[in-house]
Amino acid sequence: MTAAQILGLLGILFIIGFIGDYLFKKTNYPAILVLLALGYMAGHVLHIVDPAWVAPFSPIIANLSLVIILFDGGLGLDFSQARASAPRAIALALLGIGVSMIATAALVYYFLDWGLMNSLLLGAIVGGTSPAIVMPLIRRAKVPAEISSLLHIESALNGALVIVIALVILEVMTVGATEHVAAAIVKAIGMRFLLGVGIGVAAGFAWLWVLTFIEGEMYDDILTLAVLFLLFLGVESLKGSGAIFALVFGLILGNGMDFARFLRTKRTIEIHNTMMKFHSQISFLVKTFFFVYLGMMITFDDPNLILPSIILSLVLLAVRCIVVFAISRGKRSLLANKGILTTMLPRGLSAAVVAEIAFSSGIPNARLYPEIVIVVIATTVIIAAVGIPLFARKSPGKNSETTEKGGTSNSP
Question: What are the φ/ψ torsions at residue 397 (nearest 5 degrees)?
């Protein structure tokens, strides 16, 4: 494939992404499925791009997509709303992953005759929702700001939790240690989150202060993006959660004036519209490419796994329904929006990345993880895509796009 052909292909992808975003604003039907189908067609039907060419770059694509999407999501969150939604969002994330892990592990353990650790690993991989898919979907959906904030925070936590829990279980399986597994998982999660939040808060306030000296410079938005990447590298090098760092860093920058009033600090800056638009455009490009890439990774090498994977997706939907009802008790606004909360369960970026890592680890049933996970991703994305037009338009309250900050974001 020549350089000119690659540029032409990118041009087509971005045009399709724009059209999909435009149609989403008009109809509430997301373009994600179109991009997934396009990726599958390009890779497996028309053979325009060989998926084997792209596969080695999956860690780069995954990390780039994760950091950009979470940072953009943080920029668009209103701090007061996020603070109010955080307790239930944390409960939804932890309970959702825990129950999903148990249900998935039980299903494959008893019906596919997998070992216990293999079953738990698959449960961890598909246990949480994907911020790379939830955030673009919910940003333009007609739901109250409270629901949008809840789903934003939950998916961000899930994106980090899925990676941490699954990698710890995989390490236990490959190293062979079986003692104190639960303690090791809890300690790893706690340390990663603590580092991610701590560095995100400190770096966010520090960079807000730096921006007061370079306010008005033409390329301050690009410099901010460079700082984001460098600090993400630093947090990950320290074994912290780069995903949580990106979300917190964006949240601090996007709410600079609010934090200044809270801390009674005079010297601060509010992220201007140009910077917000720049980062939303970068997020749009990355998300468009990511969903097409994900479509290229879809394979049907073992058709016998398709039906069990679809059944697993339906089990995850049933689990989600129970968890949503549990955390919504006593909160009328959440109960009124339980339909959108339940169907917003798409798996994606984190699950795909960890499945590829499991595939290359050499553990038993390693080849099955990507094949099961990609069907689960596709099925849960379809469920979420159907849930948007069914439930979002009926949700009471104003459109989250007008009640949240960062409403200029372009999302497929």
Answer: 100, 175
Nearest 10 degrees: CA dihedral of 16, 21, 26, 27?
80
| CATH domain 57-279+305-403 topology | Na+/H+ antiporter like fold (1.20.1530)
pLDDT at 285 over 90: no
Q: Residue 305: what residue type?
A: L
Residue type, 87: P
- Cβ-based neighbours of 303, under 8 Å, separated by 6 or more: none
The secondary structure of 333-381 as a DSSP string is HHHHTHHHHHH-----HHHHHHHHHHHTTT-TTTTHHHHHHHHHHHHHH
Q: What burial class does residue 87 get, using C-beta atoms within 10 Å of its C-beta: 0-12 exposed, 13-18 middle, 19+ buried?
A: exposed
Instruction: List, for residues 52-82, the tens digit of each pLDDT value.
Output: 776 666 667 767 777 887 787 777 777 777 7
Residues across the chain: 412
d(CA 18, CA 222): 22
Residue 407 has a CB neighbour count (10 Å cut-off) of: 15
Q: Where are the beta strands (DSSP E) in 20-64?
A: none
Tell me which DSSP letter residue 329 carries: T
Could you tell me if residue 136 is left (phi over 0), alpha (psi between -120 and 50 degrees) or otherwise beta?
alpha
Question: Of 118, 147, 42, 64, whose CA–CA distance to 391 is shortest?
Answer: 147
Long-range contacts of 152-155 (CB under 8 A, 24+ apart): 152/73, 152/76, 152/77, 152/82, 152/89, 153/77, 153/82, 153/85, 153/86, 153/89, 153/90, 153/93, 154/89, 154/90, 154/92, 154/93, 154/96, 154/129, 155/128, 155/129, 155/130, 155/131
Tokens of 59: 């860690």
Burial class (CB in 10 A: 0-12, 13-18, 19+), 11: exposed
Residue 23 corresponds to which tokens in the numbers above? 């149609």
Highest mean pLDDT out of 22-26, 166-170, 304-308, 402-406: 304-308
